[in-house]
Amino acid sequence: MGEILQQLMDGSEINLAKSDLAHHRNNVHRYVATCAKALIDSIKDSDVHLSSDANHCYNYLCNLVADSGATINEETGRAIDAIWRDNSINKEFYLEYGLTSSARYFFDGINRIAAPNYTPTDADIIRSRRLHRGVFEYGFDIDGLTINFVDVGSQSSQRGKWIHQFSEVTAVLFVVDILCYDNYISEHNEMKDRLVLFDSVINSKWFPNNTIVLFLSNISEFRRKLARSPLRDHFPGFDGSKNPDQAAEYLVHQFKQMDRSLRNRLYTYTVDPYDASNIRLVAAAINEDLRRRSQA
């Protein structure tokens, strides 16, 4: 969700409160420390052979993580940077070992983030929100239309307590990382869990006529991932081999089938979170739909 929010922010005004920069800085540093631990654990589980300098930094971080977790400062930042930029860590490493795209974002900018005078950007604050608990609201101005975006992602497990409070919203944006099609938690396929959750949202009595917008995100990485992890291995009903277009269409269809209202209120898009042109097209579609409904 963080990447989607950042693209919606791009070129728009966002009203994020920054009154407590120290609080935001600590949140970012905590998130980066968690990502650093995930990177260390991934290297332990891989057959990666680091260079001598990077291996020295790896051992340094291992000791920090073993003690009390990495504190993000200039020294730690240099160690993370040396490992992340080592030739043995290729561009597919973070995907292969389950590191988040936000981890890549923070590692790419680790020297900025570890600097003593670091001030979090809007993008930093949004990406680090995954450690938070609560409901977050952001204000956007898109083509002259003010949109209040309420992010309830971290509260999805308790939606029964609050979902009725949003019955008057114009649209619901549901974001799914399409890469989770082969991920399992306690033997449960994550994509199938997302389908169950989507079913409960789109068919909720609280959203009988609301527009539902579905983003299946990370489509380019999905196309690459299929070569080594075919969709059919996890969804036996799919018979399109490794064809990425058919695989994406199959998953889109699984979500469309969840809508039992048949009121043509569901908009589905496969997008790349870092492709501004794709997200801007989607934002424009949402904006037009909101404008049409407001004038009805």
TrEMBL record:
One of its GO terms (molecular function) is GTP binding. One of its GO terms (cellular component) is heterotrimeric G-protein complex. GO terms for biological process: adenylate cyclase-activating G protein-coupled receptor signaling pathway. GTP binds at D151, V152, G153, S154, Q155. Keywords: GTP-binding, Magnesium, Metal-binding, Nucleotide-binding, Transducer. InterPro entries: Gprotein_alpha_su, GproteinA_insert, P-loop_NTPase. SUPFAM superfamilies: P-loop containing nucleoside triphosphate hydrolases (SSF52540), Transducin (alpha subunit), insertion domain (SSF47895). It holds the Pfam family G-alpha. This is G protein alpha subunit. It comes from Epicoccum nigrum.
